[in-house]
Amino acid sequence: MPQAEKRGLCTDVPARVAPRGAHAWPQRGGGARAFNPLTERLRRIGVDEAALAGLDAGIVEVRSIAVGGQIVREGKATARLHILLEGWACRYTRVARGRQTLAFLLPGDICDLDTLHAALLEYGVAAITPCKVAVLRSDDVRRAAAAHPSVAAALLGFAFEDQAALVRRAASLGRRSARGRLAHLICELHERTIAAGIDAEGSYLLPATQDDMADILGLTNVHVSRTLKALRDEGLIRLDTRCVTILDLAALAHIADFTPAAPSNMPEVR
Amino acid sequence: MPQAEKRGLCTDVPARVAPRGAHAWPQRGGGARAFNPLTERLRRIGVDEAALAGLDAGIVEVRSIAVGGQIVREGKATARLHILLEGWACRYTRVARGRQTLAFLLPGDICDLDTLHAALLEYGVAAITPCKVAVLRSDDVRRAAAAHPSVAAALLGFAFEDQAALVRRAASLGRRSARGRLAHLICELHERTIAAGIDAEGSYLLPATQDDMADILGLTNVHVSRTLKALRDEGLIRLDTRCVTILDLAALAHIADFTPAAPSNMPEVR
DNA sequence: CGGAACGTTGACTAGGATCAACTCAGGTGG
DNA sequence: CCACCTGAGTTGATCCTAGTCAACGTTCCG
After folding, report:
1. Is A160 found in the same domain as A49?
2. Across the interface, do A122 and B268 touch by the CB < 8 Å criterion?
3. Which residues in A lie closer than 8 A to residue B102 (C-beta atoms)?
4. Which of residues 13-72 of A touch strand C (CB under 7 A)?
5. Long-range contacts of range A30-33, CB-CB < 8 Å, 24 or more positions apart?
6. Considering CB atoms only, which of B123, B159, B173 is closest to A173?
7. Sorting pLDDT into bands at 50, 70 and 90, what band is B263?
8. pLDDT tens digit string along B97-122?
9. Cross-chain Cβ contact A167/B95 below 8 Å
10. Which domain CATH number covers A239?
């Protein structure tokens, strides 16, 4: 049925290609200056204002990165810490068979926490959409952590969140079917876009290409396409121009074997 | 060909079942007292003797755990840190489809580093062979870390090693074939048994059941059996009574796409 | 207008899963 | 000492999930 697509009114807006050019993606924070979602996040966790101001002042540079551009290079041990301000990115490793994405990064996420302590980075970070990244000197960040226990605690908390996410990723890759993995990813991102405040009434923009999804799911782009179509056809999700709408969260969560995150918005550090 | 196995002289000792009872597995450290391989490891990294003595003195209990027994329970946030003194264990998470093992633990490994900082454990730890585990109060360990920077650095280093291992695990699960994963596991363990000083001239004891291997590889026990047989038949490994001998490391590393660990025996902390 | 990037669809293949039977050692209990 | 059971591994047959190859539709963009 090449391009017929006459299945009637529901759920099947063709979901054709959308631009990943420089205009379409969400630009939070009203006016002019670069809004820092990480600051918000830290404030909510209870990091004191002095520390926040210090961190903000420590921003050496705000880089703009085009789609597909490298934010952090694999292996390299720079003395810089990168914070994602706008756009989506992915953390990945290379294997002979291709690329395995470890995590999608959303605004407010720290790209390369490990640089604070490890000499080698096991992964790289690349831009999925055009991104804005705040660059800090890792020395400064370490100093801030030393000076403000609340900062140290927050960073440690982030590190453990990352690790927990990686555990869940491994579980998905090892023990879930393509269907399950995809459903799980959709649930995950649903939750995270809400947490990051970039959702919109039960829908969210998922700028990742089907290739990108294949990379994180351990699948092929072709199979992602098919599986996605199946979920659409069953009326579980809607998908137009990269905007995901979850139509039946319960069913989706069920086939995903998804457990919502514990309410540990405030990471239990120490 | 049920139980014929007449393929001649090479590589095909039937590899039948071996006991996992309480007698067969390596008991390091000659005589009577419980030898602590972690202490050795820390000493090599350059942790000072005072700190080592303190940690050793902090051992509240040495527990013996039978095959299949729980060393650390999932989810539970105990105020105890567990160090594997003898035997093999595995760190795992549960998923609807079964268990996904995240790592095999060898003597000298810390079972549940996260308990030092996180309230929730994403994983459990179970004994693959009979194990001896040193139990410490996490408060004491935190105090030791605070008092001795070298201890803090070492712990942080271990945390990053764990994380790096997890990254490689995810890559394997997502992007390697069964053959590749198995070959990779064999190379990995080759390296780690050497590092832990429990190898024997190019061979090592791999006490894990084929079920255990299936759990870490994201496969079925049946498929592990077949894949293992293929590797044996091709003369890449020998396998008798759970003793692995690598016959052609280069070939194995090639099909595994294996990169030997960086010589960061001394983790580059700070 | 032509090309590139993204997505869809079909036909075919292959890599693992599943189900099931059977072998072999070690224990256990009579 | 033997009968029996259990846990581990092997092997075969069959099915199905996902990969591969390829063509084609769109949309965007230069």
Report:
1. yes
2. no
3. 167, 170
4. 14-17, 20, 67
5. none
6. B173
7. low
8. 889 999 999 999 999 999 998 888 99
9. no
10. 1.10.10.10
Estimate in Å the CA A74 to C1' C15 gap, whole number.
31
Give Cβ neighbours of residue B231 (< 8 Å, ≥ 6 apart). B179, B182, B183, B186, B237, B252
Mean pLDDT of B259-266: 67
What is the rounded average pLDDT of the residues A114-143? 93
Examine the domain organization and report whether A147 and A66 are in the same domain: yes
Beta bridge partners of B100: B93
**pLDDT for residue A193 is more than 80:** yes
On whether residue A15 sits in a domain, the answer given is no
**What is each CA distance from B76 to A57, B51, B159, B202, in whole angstroms?**
40, 28, 19, 39
Overall size of chain A counted in residues: 270
A216 in a domain, yes or no? yes
Number of domains in chain B: 2
The Cα of A61 is separated from the nearest Cα of chain B by a number of Å equal to 23
pLDDT in tens, A44-103: 998 999 999 999 999 999 999 999 999 999 987 789 999 999 999 999 999 998 899 999
Supply the range of the domain harboring residue B187: 177-256
Residues A209 and A230 in one domain: yes
- In this structure, the answer to whether residues A69 and A162 fall within a common structural domain is yes
Buried b (16+ CB within 10 A) or exposed e, B187-204: bbbbebbeebebbeeebb
Quick one: A165 and A181 in the same domain?
no
* Same domain for B240 and B135: no
Asked if the structure places residue A223 within a domain, the reply is yes
Question: Which is higher by pLDDT, A231 or B75?
Answer: A231
For position A25, what pLDDT does the model report?
52
pLDDT value for B269: 40
d(CA B73, CA A262): 18
List alpha helices for B138-177, DSSP H: 138-147, 149-175
Helix, strand or coil, per DSSP, at residue A5: coil
